[in-house]
């Protein structure tokens, strides 16, 4: 394994030779290289002052060199050169990430990079942001003049950042074991809107890769492609992640499946690392020795959450928040009567099961749809059996492009302290969650204060009730621009995954990432596993070329009769983020053309 160490003064001459060979690799002529030689020379007395490090292989062969120059808060990447024979082996990536890490340790908040034009693609792929000429106000680094003698110097900047505080508090700042018990969590709620076999939940368990910013092990019910975990680790800079998959093909009992393997259970629980589940369950409590208190999850009930919101708002102090009315219908006849009355008044209605995930068990019905269906009873016959909540439909802004669905994410730590993670913009279609975007500017400024204040109030109530773990509060925006809370989720969520990845990328590539999770990107055909790996690798490269990051989040959907992928894309700007998503969706839809026609079900 290649490692980074401090350079030695005695190596100065050899390192200068490496720098010159690396520069020559790009085809510069002898005259140009001779003119650069003095500026690119590394002198023995400079090695420490310029904070020069080298990357070397297990045999001690030096493969690359880098320097971090200047003083906080502004510093320069003075050198980053790789031995030509080692280019393409990840040495440059290793050195660049080491420079960012050291910059954080030294309090640097702005890193300037003057790049040779041939290296511009590398820095863009690593997350550095190109700086327009008009915005340059820092002196060039020691190697900048040599790098730009052709007149096409490219300046980049990065914002070195430590792992954000909430992420350190979530798992103590270290590595964690991620347990993909999505189906197990769902199964404890006897709700008819949830799939008995929990096939969708087993797909969603792949998100266990992202339950914290730094996993040590993934525990998954179904087998996942080895190429997937390799690519995810490469994209997020993880090493040494153990994968325990294929533990449970059907049914919800993942924690029990682990407990049935004593050696595995001992390995996972005996390393002193926290075990992070999708959500709390009795079997997970038995696995980890955590006392199980079923009452902790009472606000997973949409009716109980509504009552909680009502109590918080009764205390005042939350302008800009409005609560939609909700009635728990004791019988189907009562639900039909309420729905019919609202339809006669021309009002829309939201019909909800007591529990449900991702929009399952939630149906939005307009007055016109009730009439078209032949009445309220006809509408209800199409819905899952069981108790129903009849809720006021909140009419949204007149502008179809206006923000409509938002969410607050936070968690309660073991000591009962509430930690704010942030707000996210959700993509919700006809009541069904499709994805979310987090990061700077994702949520409009006007919504930030009331959303964060109300989310924190919910967190305090959850903490007082004894709940410990992740939670969110979902909102819709009404026609007057007010926020209407609709439910809480006492578990990890899709937006939570985006927050985790944003925290990791900010620490790995520089602050300011926007991250979007898209639950379902349709594939144009079912592909063999090797071709899915190839498609994902191609998408990672294509996104890197425009300065974005592609991470396949849910690979197992690619093998369904109607194939799809869950994906994450990240970038430092909204424009690049949108371009990356469009690129991914287009390439995914186009894979059917490789076979001449879309795949038929069962092929």
Walk me through this protein's architecture.
- With 603 residues, the protein is α+β, with helices and mostly antiparallel strands.
- The chain is 35% helix and 23% strand.
- It has 20 helices and 23 strands.
- An eight-stranded antiparallel β-sheet has the order 20-19-16-17-18-21-23-22, sandwiched between helices. Strands 1-2-3-4-5-7-6 form a seven-stranded mixed β-sheet. A four-stranded parallel β-sheet has the order 10-9-8-11, with no helix packed on it.
- Helix 1 (12-24) packs antiparallel against helix 2 and helix 9 (226-236) packs parallel to helix 19.
- It starts with a strand and ends in a 13-residue tail after the last helix.
- 45% of the residues are buried.
- Mean pLDDT is 91; it is low at 142-151 and 596-603.
Overall shape: elongated
Overall radius of gyration: 27 Å
The class by helix and strand makeup works out as: alpha+beta
Helix proportion: 25-40%
**Largest β sheet strand count, sense and barrel closure:** 8 strands, antiparallel
Average pLDDT, rounded to a whole number, is 91
Tell me the number of helical segments per DSSP (H or I, 4 or more residues long).
20
Give descriptors for this structure.
23 strands; single chain; 603 residues; 8-stranded antiparallel beta sheet; disordered C terminus; 7-stranded mixed beta sheet; elongated; alpha+beta
């Amino acid at each position: 394994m290649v490692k980074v160490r401090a350079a030695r003064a005695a190596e100065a001459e050899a390192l200068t030779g490496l720098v010159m060979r690396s520069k020559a690799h790009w085809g510069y002529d002898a005259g140009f290289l001779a003119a650069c030689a003095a500026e690119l020379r590394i002198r023995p007395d400079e090695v420490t002052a310029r904070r020069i490090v080298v990357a070397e292989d297990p045999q001690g062969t030096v493969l690359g060199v880098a320097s971090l120059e200047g003083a906080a808060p502004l510093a320069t990447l003075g050198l980053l050169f790789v031995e030509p024979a080692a280019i393409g082996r990840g040495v440059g990536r290793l050195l660049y990430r080491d420079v960012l890490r050291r910059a954080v340790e030294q309090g640097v908040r702005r890193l300037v990079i003057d790049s040779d034009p041939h290296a511009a693609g590398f820095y863009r792929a690593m997350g550095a942001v190109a700086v327009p000429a008009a915005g340059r106000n820092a002196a060039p680094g020691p190697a900048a003049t040599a790098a730009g003698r052709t007149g096409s110097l490219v300046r980049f900047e990065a914002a070195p950042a430590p792992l954000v505080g909430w992420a350190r508090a979530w798992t103590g700042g270290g590595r964690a074991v991620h347990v993909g018990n999505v189906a197990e969590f769902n199964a404890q709620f006897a709700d008819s809107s949830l799939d008995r076999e929990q096939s969708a939940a087993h797909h969603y368990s792949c998100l266990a890769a992202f339950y914290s910013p730094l996993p040590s092990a993934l525990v998954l019910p179904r087998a996942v492609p080895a190429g997937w975990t390799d690519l995810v680790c490469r994209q997020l800079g993880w090493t040494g992640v153990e994968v325990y998959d294929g533990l449970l093909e059907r049914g919800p009992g993942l924690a029990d499946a682990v407990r049935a393997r004593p050696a595995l259970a001992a390995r996972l629980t005996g390393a002193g690392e926290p075990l992070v589940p999708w959500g709390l369950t009795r079997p997970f409590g038995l696995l980890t020795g955590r006392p199980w208190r079923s009452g902790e999850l009472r606000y997973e009930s949409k009716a109980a959450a509504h009552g909680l919101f009502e109590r918080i708002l009764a205390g005042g102090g939350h302008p800009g928040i409005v609560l939609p009315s909700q009635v728990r219908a004791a019988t189907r006849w009562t639900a039909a009567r309420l729905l019919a009355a609202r339809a006669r008044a021309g009002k829309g209605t939201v019909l909800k099961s007591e529990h449900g995930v991702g929009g399952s068990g939630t149906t939005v019905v307009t007055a016109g749809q009730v009439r078209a269906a032949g009445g309220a009873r006809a509408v209800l016959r199409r819905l899952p059996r069981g108790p129903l909540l009849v809720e006021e439909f909140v009419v949204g802004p007149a502008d179809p492009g206006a923000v409509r669905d938002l969410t607050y994410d936070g968690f309660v730590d073991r000591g009962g302290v509430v930690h704010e993670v942030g707000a996210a913009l959700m993509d919700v279609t006809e009541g069904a969650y499709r994805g979310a975007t987090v990061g700077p500017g994702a949520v409009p400024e006007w919504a930030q204060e009331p959303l964060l204040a109300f989310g924190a109030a919910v967190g305090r109530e959850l903490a007082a009730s004894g709940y410990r773990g992740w939670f969110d509060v979902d909102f819709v925006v009404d026609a007057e621009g007010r926020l209407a809370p609709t439910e809480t989720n006492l578990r990890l969520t899709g937006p939570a995954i985006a927050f985790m990845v944003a925290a990791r990328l900010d620490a790995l590539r520089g602050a300011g990432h926007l991250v979007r999770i898209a639950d379902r990107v349709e594939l144009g055909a079912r592909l063999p596993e090797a071709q899915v790996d190839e498609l994902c690798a191609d998408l990672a490269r294509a996104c890197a070329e425009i300065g974005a990051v592609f991470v396949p989040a849910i690979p197992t959907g690619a093998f369904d009769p109607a194939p799809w992928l869950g994906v994450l894309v990240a970038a430092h700007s909204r424009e690049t983020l949108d371009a990356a998503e469009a690129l991914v969706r287009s390439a995914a839809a186009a894979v059917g053309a490789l076979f001449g026609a879309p795949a038929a079900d069962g092929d």
